[in-house]
Amino acid sequence: MKEFSSLKKKTISAVFWSFFDLIANHGIQFIIQIILARLLLPEHFGVIGMILVFIAISNSIVDSGFTQALIRDQHTTQEDYSTIFYFNLVMSFILYVMLFISSKSISIFFEEPQLVEIIRVLSIVVIINSLAVIQKVMLMKRVDFRTITKISMVSSFVSGTITIVVALLGFGVWSLVINMIALQFFQTLLFFFYNRWLPSFTFNYQSFKRFFGFGSKLLLSGLIDTIYNNIFFFIIGKAYSSIQLGYYSNAVKFRDLASQSLASTIQRVTYPVLSAIQEDEERLKLGFKRIIRISAFINFPLLIGLAATANPLFHILFGEKWIPSVIYFQLLCFAGMLYPLHALNLNILQVKGRSDLYLLIEIIKKSFFSLLILLSFFLKLGIIGLICAAMLNSYVSLFINTYFSAKEIAYSFREQLKDLMFPFLISLLMGVSVYLLGDVLPSNHFVQLVFQIIIGIIIYIGMSKILRIQELTVVFELLVPLLSKIKYWSIR
C-alpha cells in the first residue's frame, strides 16, 4: 500500500511537471508561432513544411527505438548508455551527409530552389538532437520531469526571443530555420548542464544487440508512423502551392498544441510508471483504465471545443490572412482527439515488451491509411479529402490498437468504448451548442470567443454532474495538488 501511495505521488508530480513542460515548450512556442504568423507569410511556413518529413525521419532513425528500450530496462549500465550514445551520434552524421547530398534532388522535386541551402543548414538539428537522447532518457527513467520542464522553459524562451528578433530584421523563412536550430541547441546544452552525464570510451556490441533486439521493431514502426504523420506535408508540397501547405502547416501546429502535446505528455509519464508495475496485472489494468478515462474526459471537450470556436480564434490569434486554415484545423481536431488514446494503447505493448505486435499494428494501420489516401486522389477530393482520410483512419486505428492491447491487458475495445461513450457524447453536444451559438452572438470575435468558452464549460461540467461521471471528481482531486504546487512555485 505504501508502494502504491509513493507511485501515486510520483505520478502526480510527473503529471504536474509534464503539464508545465507542455506550457513551457509548446505554449511558449505557440506564442512565438502566433507572432511569426503575423510577421511572416503562409508560403514561408510552407517551404519549411516541405522538408519536415526528412528531418522527422532522420530523428526517428537516430533514435532507432533505443529510447523506449532504455526506459523499459531496469538494469541499465554506464556501458549501455555509452554504447547507444555513440551509435546515435555516428548515425546522425551519416544522415546529415545524406541530406546534404540529396538537397538538390529534393529542391528539384518540390520545384523550390531555396530548399538546397535550407536543408543543408536545418539538417544540423539531427546531429544536435542525437547528443541529447541519452540525457533525456536518464531524466525520464527517474521520472524527473521537473528538470525537463526547466530545460524546456529556458530553451523555448531564449530561442523564441532570437527568432522574433531575426524575423523583425526581415530574415523571412530563415527565421523559422534559426528557431528550430536554436531550440534544439539550447535544449541539448541544458540537458548536459543539468544531468552532468558523459559517455565512457566504450562500445559493447552485446549491449547494442540486446537493446536493438527490442528497439529495431520500434524503429521500423516508428519510421512508418513518422512517414505517415508527415506524408501530407510531402503530398501537399508537391501537388499544391507552398501557400496551401502553409495554411495546412499552421493548422497542424495549432492542433498539435492540444492533441499531440497532451498525448506525448501522457505517454512519457505513464510509460515509465506503468513499466514499474508491469508484473502486477491487476494494478496495471486498473491504472491503465483510469488513465484512459481521464484522458478522454479532458481531451474530447478540448479538441471539439477548439473546432467549434476555430473561426473567432483564428481571427484573434493569426489575423485575416490565415482564415483559409480554419476548415483544415476543424477537421484535424476531430482526428486528433483520439491521439492520447492511441498513445496509451501502444504504451501497453511497449510495457509488455511486445514490439513485434507494435510493428504489426503499424503495418496494418498504414496499409489501410494508404488505401484511403489513394481513394482521396482517385475521387479528386483535394486537401479536404486528405484530411478526412486521416480523420477516418484515426477512428479505425483506435479499434486496431485496442484489439491488440486487449490481448496483453484484458481491457477490450467494447470496455474502452463503454468508458469513452459519455465523454464523447457530452463533448459533441457541447461542441454543437457552442458552434451554433457563434451564429447568434455579436460579430465581435473576442465577444464571440469569450461567450462560447463560458457556455461550453458550463454545458460540459453541468452534463458531467448530471450523469455522475466519476472523472469530473478525479480531475478536481488531481487539480488540488497541482494547484498547490503552482501556488508554491509562484510564491517562490
Q: What tags apply to this protein structure?
A:
492 residues; disordered N terminus; 2 domains; mainly alpha; 19 helices
Written account of the structure:
By secondary structure, this protein is mostly helical. It contains 19 helices and no strands. The chain has helices spanning 2-39, 42-63, 66-72, 78-110, 115-122, 124-141, 145-168, 173-195, 205-239, 242-276, 281-308, 310-317, 325-336, 339-351, 355-378, 382-409, 413-440, 445-466, 470-491. Helix 2 runs antiparallel to helix 4 (78-110), helix 12 crosses helix 18 and helix 14 runs parallel beside helix 16. The longest helix is centred in the N-terminal third of the chain and has 38 residues, at 2-39.
